[in-house]
Design goal:
Length: 176
């Protein structure tokens, strides 16, 4: 444990679990506003399971990556939203949301992220899963979006990340 002010790191030399206490405190607001359940469910709704199946993704793969579902209230009732959490050392720093029912022409967005004023970070999705054995080649697969990332995970690859915020909209004029 390093207990210096503003640099309180910890690391377990037995299991390699590590983190930064100051960072965890900083992102309490992100965790609070994320709509992430206290415990990830063991299954998804039928609608989300069917959506995953259409994409060739087993729900076990999505659940292993801590992708969660919540119901968003709308004027018509509610609809399932999938949350793709972003972590730094098991500290939740952002969530990207996906509207399962979105269709071209709908008013709302298909994808959106948590607001930056909460202090969210824009980082690669899947960084918390990167790990390398000592004798292993150190390779990382970088994908363009969340579904590509999940597809590689489905195929058994462990060192996969997706670029921050996914691929830009083809109509974007500024690519920052």
């Amino acid at each position: 444990v390093n207990n210096e002010p503003d640099n309180r790191w910890y690391k377990c030399h037995h299991c390699n679990f590590s983190g930064n206490l100051d960072m965890q405190d900083k992102y309490d607001k992100v965790a609070e506003k994320s709509r992430m359940p206290k415990q990830i469910a063991e299954t998804y709704s039928k609608e989300v399971r069917e959506y995953l199946e259409k994409r060739g993704i087993d729900q076990k793969t999505a659940l292993k990556e801590k992708i969660y579902e919540y119901n968003m209230r709308t004027a018509e009732g509610s609809k399932p939203i999938m949350g793709f959490p972003f972590y730094i050392n098991l500290t939740l720093v952002n969530v990207k949301y996906f509207d399962v029912r979105w269709k071209k022409g709908d008013e709302g967005p298909k994808w959106w992220q948590m607001k930056k004023d909460l202090g969210t970070k824009s980082i690669f999705l899947g960084m918390q899963s990167l790990s390398f054995d000592v004798d292993e080649k150190k390779e990382v697969i970088i994908t363009e979006g969340e579904w590509d990332w999940l597809t590689w995970k489905q195929c058994g690859y462990k060192n996969v990340v997706s670029v921050p915020m996914g691929a830009p909209n083809p109509n974007a004029k500024e690519f920052e």
